[in-house]
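REQUEST FORM: STRUCTURE PREDICTION
Request ID: SP-0412
Submitted by: Lab K.M.
Chain count: 1
Length (residues): 125
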Amino acid sequence: MPLPNAYAQYNNSKILTASPAELTLLLYEGAIKFCNIAILKIEQNDVEGAHNNIVRVEKIIDYFRETLDMKYPVAEDFERVYVYLTRRLLEANTHKDKEIVEEVATHLRSMRDTWKEVMKQAKVS
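STATUS: Completed
RESULT:
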């Protein structure tokens, strides 16, 4: 049993030592992971499992919305995207629709990839 404990300690350390930019990336990764699990649970007709993972994605998106700095004009664009994704997740959860969850995951992957590029450019500058 030492291996799972070591893995948990590594993940905990990774989070505690991450920069704000890295934490944002980890949140995008987590949201994508929970989308993928929700899709699997929908395919398995595990209603509760699908619900729990969709809610996890919603909570991450809610956190992103809460932390937007609205003094920057781009924040309004992110707000609109996050509102749209939240609405789609509510629809997906209501109907247990994996296609909607796949759509949300696609948007999140795109945002994650853009964030990775921003992080890369910030290191170059």
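NOTES: The domain at 20-124 is CATH 1.20.120.340 (Four Helix Bundle (Hemerythrin (Met), subunit A)).
Reviewed by: T.R.
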